[in-house]
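Continuing from the previous page...

OK, I double-checked the sequence for Acetyltransferase against my notes and this is the correct one:
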Amino acid sequence: MPSEIVQTREGLSACLAIRRAVFVEEQQVPEDEEMDDWDRLPVGEEAAPVHILVRTDEGTPVATARVIPYAEGTAKIQRVAVLASHRQQGYGTAAMAAAEAAARRLGFVRAVLDAQLQAEGFYRQLGYRRVSDEVFLDAGIEHVRMAKVLQGGEASVEA
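Thanks. Re-ran it with the corrected sequence; updated structure tokens here:
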């Protein structure tokens, strides 16, 4: 499963199309809540977004994730999405592995994410643990905050 760090407008458009299909169309998240200022290509700034794109072996874009700076030593992985037609085939795991690798390369030692409650088990299998006491709503969908130590550092992460 080829994955890449997006460097082109075409790659970014593919990531946004996957997110639009999954979050806006399938889950009914308002587009103005889904798309934000982090949806840009990095232009050399220190606090730049990293967009991950996963393709089928034939080259079709099917999954995406985004990594942004969160706190000292901590990255936030967001907007993890896999097209419905390609779920349960390892593409989400590939997107997460690429996102974590990118975060490590940028020097982050921890990752946090806000998992949809129905996806908590997926992230738990990848080594994330819940750090929020309460379930919270984001775009009308129940979420929990989860965290994982990527390298070194302390095991605890502020919720």
